[in-house]
Amino acid sequence: MSDPPIQRALISVSNKAGIIDFASALIQNGIEILSTGGTRKHLQDAGLEVRDLSEYTEFPEMMDGRLKTLHPRVHGGILCRHDQPNEMELIAEHGILAIPLVVVNLYPFEETIAKRDVTLELAIENIDIGGPTMIRAAAKNYRFTTVCTSPAQYENIIKQIEERHSTQLSLRKQLALDAFAMTARYDRAISRFLSEKQFSAPKPETIPADVNQPPESFRQSLVRKASLRYGENPHQEAALYEAENSQSDDLIAAQQLNGKELSYNNLLDLESALQLVKLLPGHSAVVIKHNNPCGASSQPSLRKAVEFAFEGDPESAFGSVLGFNAELDLETAEFLVEPGKFVEAIIAPDFTPAAIEVLTTRPKWKNNVRLMKTGPLTRGTSRFEMRSISGGLLVQNSDTLLEDTSQWRVVTDIPPTDSQREDLQFVWTIVRQIKSNAIAIGKETSLWGSGAGQMSRVDAVDLALQKSGDKSAGCVLASDAFFPFPDSIERAATAGIKAIIQPGGSRKDEEVIAACNQHKLPMIFTGQRHFKH
Predict the structure, then answer these.
(1) How far is CA 306 from CA 44, 255, 300, 315, 338, in A?
(2) Would you call 290 a catalytic residue per the annotation?
(3) Alpha-carbon Rg of the chain, whole angstroms?
(4) DSSP sequence for 252-316
(5) What is the CATH T-level fold of the domain 405-525, as seen in this structure?
(6) What's the distance, CA 408 to chain centroid?
(7) Is 8-196 a CATH 3.40.50.1380 domain?
(8) Which of 265, 299, 268 is nearest to 285 (CA)?
(9) How far apart are CA 394 and CA 373, in angstroms?
(10) Residues 430, 501 contacting (CB under 8 angstroms)
C-alpha cells in the first residue's frame, strides 16, 4: 500500500528543545496532537491545541507518572497494520485511533547517573518504561508508523509531511534503526549502572568497564554503528563498531549536532582530544593534529584557553580537531570562526545555542564542522583498552588515571617555584597524550611546543624546542620517559628552559641531575613513565 497519511501524532518528550515549533508545524498540517503530563502542559502553555492522552484512553495517569502510556488504546494505535482489514476493523470496534507518528525521547537516565550525588532511588525513577515501549512498538511497525526520537529529526519529518502528508518508507526505516540503536544504548546504560551498584557480579567472560587485571578469557559483543567512507587511507575499507560496555561520556556515545560524516581519522583524533581534556582542570582546550596535541591550555575562561591553545602551533592548528572540557560558549565560537581558522571537528560536553548558531551558519563552517556533544565528563577513570595485532589482541589498563603528585620527588638542589610546579603538572599531563618519544614544553598552563614520535629523545627535545622557538625561554619541559644521557638537559638549558619533569630511572640519572644542578634547573622525578605507542 502507499505511505499511510499522518492525521495524528503522540508527543511525549523529556528533551523539549524545538518541540513547540515542531508541534505547531504538525497542527498547521491538520494533524491532531495527543500528549501527556509535562509535555502537554508545555505545548498548551505555548497556546497549542493538544488532546490529553488520559482523556483519549479514559484512564488517568497514576503512580507519579509511572503509568500513563501503557494502554491498549495507545499501543493498538501504534502497532496496527494499515494493510490488514481485520486489524483496522478491530481498532475501530474498540475505539482505538491510529497513531501514525510517535514523537518520544526518554527520561535523562545517563545525565542523572553522571551526577556525583545520585542515589540508587533517583536513578531507578529515571528509568523510562513507557517511552522505550512506545519507541520499540513504533519502530517495529515502521511500515506504517513514523518514530521520532530526537529533535535533530524534526526538520526532515516536517518537510515530508508538508510535501506528501506522510513520510517515505526509506525515512521510516532509518528512523526505526535510529530508535532501536537509542533504546539499546539506553538499556546498556541502565545495565552498567545497576552492575556497578552490585546487583550482580560481572560475568567472567566479559570485560567490565573499570578493571584491574585482564581476565583469562572474554567475549566482546560489538555492533556496527556506521560504515565509514574509508579507513586511514582511501583504499582501506572501514566501519565503526560500538562495544556493549561503552560509557555515557565515551566518543561512541557522543551526539553529532552538525557536520559531515565522521571519517576514520576524525574519530581517532576526537578520541585523543576527549581523553586529554578529561585529564585537564578548569576551562581547558586542546588542539589535535594527526593524533597528537599541537596546542593545549587551561585558563580562567574557555575563550582564553582556546586562544592560547591555537598560539601553541597556529600553522598545525589549521584543519585540526578540538577538544573542550566545558560547555562551548558564544565567545569561544566567535574566536573559532575568525578568518584564517578552520577545524575539522569539535568535541565538548555541550554547546550553548548561541555557539551552535555561530558554528553552523558562518561560511566554510555551515554543514562542514562536526560538532560532537558528550554530556558531562568523568575524570580519572580506568578501563581496559584493546589493540589488534595479527591473529589476536593486546589488552591493557588505559593510562587515564589522574596522577598522584604526592609520589613526586624534587631531585635537584633547587626546587621549582609554585608557578613552575603548576606548569610542570600541566605539561606532564599533556606529554601523556603525545606519541613516544615525547617532549612537551609549556608555560602559563599552555603548550608551546611538542616533539612527538621521535626515535631519539634528543631529536624529540630538538623538535619541541624548534616548535616553541623564542617562547622556550622561561618555559618548563616534560619528558614521557627518562633521559638516558644529560645531552637533552644541555639543549634545554641553552634554550632557556627553567624546570624539568620526567619519570627518572635511567642508569645515568646522577649525571642528568648533576647537569640540572649545574644550570640551576629544578627537576622532578615522577616515578611513572607514560609511553604512548
Answers:
(1) 42, 22, 11, 15, 13
(2) yes
(3) 27
(4) GGPEEEESSPPPHHHHHHHHHHHHHHTT--SEEEEEEETTEEEEEEEESSHHHHHHHHHHH-HHH
(5) Cytidine Deaminase; domain 2 (3.40.140)
(6) 32
(7) yes
(8) 299
(9) 30
(10) no
Tell me what the mean pLDDT of segment 143-148 comes to. 89
The pLDDT tens digits for 230-278 are 998 999 999 988 876 677 788 888 899 998 889 999 999 999 999 999 9
Per residue, the 3-state secondary structure of 134-150, as one string, reads HHHHHHHCCCCCEEECC
Distance CA 315, CA 478 (A): 23
Q: How many CB atoms lie within 10 A of CB 1?
A: 8
Which residue(s) pair with 289 in the sheet? 292
The contacts of residue 157 (CB under 8 Å, 6+ apart) are: 101, 146, 148, 167, 171, 175
Query: How many other C-beta atoms are found inside a 10 Å radius of the C-beta of residue 429?
Result: 23
Strand partners, 33: 9
CATH 3.40.140.20 boundaries in the chain: 260-373, 405-525
The 10 Å CB-count burial string (b at 16+, else e) for 458-472 is bebbbbbbebbeebb
266: its cell numbers: 576524525
CA distance 454 to 452: 6
Tens of pLDDT, residue by residue over 448-465, are 999 998 999 999 999 999
304 is catalytic: no
Residue 503, pLDDT above cutoff 70? yes
From 290, 341, 508, 519, the catalytic residue: 290
CATH of domain 260-373: 3.40.140.20
- By CB atoms closer than 10 A (0-12, 13-18, 19+), residue 214 is middle
Measured CA to CA, the distance from residue 217 to residue 354 in angstroms comes to 49
